[in-house]
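Posted in: Structural Biology > Protein-Ligand Complexes

Title: Requesting predicted complex, adenosine-5'-triphosphate in pocket

I'd be grateful if someone could produce the 3D structure tokens for the following input. Sequence and ligand are given below.
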Amino acid sequence: MDFSNQLDLLAQAEPTSNPPLMAWQEQGVLRAIDRQWIEQLAHHVNESNDAVHIAGALCSAYLGAGHICIDLVSLWKKPPEGLAVAELKAALAASGVHSVADWCDALKQSQLVSLALPLTEKPMVLSGTRLYLYRYFQYEQQVLSYLKHHAGATPFEPDAAIIDRLFPNKSDTVDWQKVAVANAASLPFSVISGGPGTGKTTTVTKLLALLVSQSAAQGKVLRIELAAPTGKAAARLTESIANAKRSLPLEEDIKAAIPEQASTLHRLLGSDFGRSRFKHNRDNPLHLDVLLVDEVSMVDLPMMAKLIDALPPHARLILLGDKDQLASVEAGSVLGDLSLGIESAYFQADWAQRLTRLTGENVSQFANPEAPLISRSLTLLRTSYRFDANSGIGHLAKAMNAGNAQDAIYQLQNNPRDVHWQVPTEQQTKPDIATLAKGYDDYWDAVRQQKDIVSLYAAFSRYQILTAVRQGEFGVEQVNKQLELYFYQRGRVKDPHVWYPGKAVMLTRNDASLGLFNGDIGLCMPDESQRLRVWFMQPDGSFTGLLPSRLSAFEVVFAMTVHKSQGSEFERVALLLPLTPSPVLTRELIYTGITRAKQDFTLWGAAHLVTAAAQSRIQRNSGLPDELWLSA
Ligand SMILES: Nc1ncnc2c1ncn2[C@@H]1O[C@H](COP(=O)(O)OP(=O)(O)OP(=O)(O)O)[C@@H](O)[C@H]1O
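-- Reply #1 --
Done. Output follows.
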């Protein structure tokens, strides 16, 4: 049976609805699509076992929430929010399933499920007690086999003399940037992770300089490409690589051979908009020797699999990112899974010795016989150069990241220089829009003075209101509406219902014809002939002005969600929490919000929400952690 076009099945004759699934949809545990998907498939092959229907619907629902798979053992103990353990077990018992083993047996007997070995094309795959949708199992296997293959590769021998030249200063503590360069130059695949300002870009620029110098010595020219998941992140990477290059202690021709221009991943892979396949893939690989990808926490599993698929076999892949940030919007948390044990695992003794030899840094003191093979490919930068010892933002981010609610609250209260805390009053039902809007005063001055688009963009980028949620009075949609209304009442906007000078929007879809991407920000201003245009910054820093009528999917962006702010930084940030607890309030969300601020951070939210968030972590099911970290 061909399951390749599963959506077609949805258009076919109606199957009968499965009673527990219908009830769970009504309870909000499942989406309609989760139930319909499995019911149609089951109808197609006469699969009548409810235990299979239940597993399939949950697999689809979990995928919708960002998980790569479901783990039957975990589900047995802890079903999704809104579904009681007893209710799940009763529904399964009705089809003879009384244990996880019974559930696995039922799935193994189903025509809808393949085993991982031998793998056949069925809608779902059972691997141990994990159940995947077929395509996601394939993505995971693709990434896994790439990682395992490259982590175990015979190492290259980087030129220690060049590494020494790149790091002329010696200190008493281990210089992890130097170690990262030696480590990443040793293998075809590497990850450099670190919090804000830990020198990821500085380090990787030195790494590129090393690779370019080594190739130049052999008379070869390296083809290097730089990429990031969003246009904004690509523009930032371009800017920071250009800055970091300037201070390299190397010859001008080596610096000149390091590119500055970064593109988005979609553009790099040749986005065939509307289709899931990219122009570049295994049959038409990218034409490059080295690929550097920044902000990898935002890259989902399907994108990572497609990226790997498009690499020529000899290419080096270098990934940069902050493992503690929010995971990608779509399914997976590849960077998080990859760097799961990075804090404590360090390197196996022989690898640590090798790094000591290459760098002169005492890495051997961190040798760990338990470190799995993947740890070779990872280096964590541990010192922030952006936040000094007195930085409240730095301390607050650290406390939140460690899940230490008490310390986070202390930091919120005791750093008046750069951290501010606004606790809602008991009577408060709406955000304090007038105070929040003040941050945009400079921007509105620039609009009024009809400053050039470069200055205007710079003024806009200095401040950002972030929301944790989309819906409700404290959600992004309402806050933007209230802000526009407030700007109208203050005479800054003539009519908030039409395009006006100063209107700021964010695209919500990629647009092939315009060459713009989801997340790109446009500012509305008149052109020389006084026609309103929406101006977008290109990755090279230039601006394109489009007639507003050409934009189809966008939203106002005086406030944006923390999710959408990933890959961007602002001088001043105001993070607005809702009044009541929400499952989206996690440690990662607040940490990501805090670390978007470079100079000044204000939290609007109650202490009990900060405490709850510090104790709540995002966990996404995937097979990568076990395969990479536990089975070593
Ligand atoms: N070893 C170092 N000694 C002193 N300053 C450093 C060092 N490494 C980086 N810096 C400085 O710290 C700042 C942040 O560095 P960089 O941009 O490389 O960090 P990053 O981790 O890429 O930051 P971001 O969080 O913005 O992605 C820069 O001003 C850089 O010059």
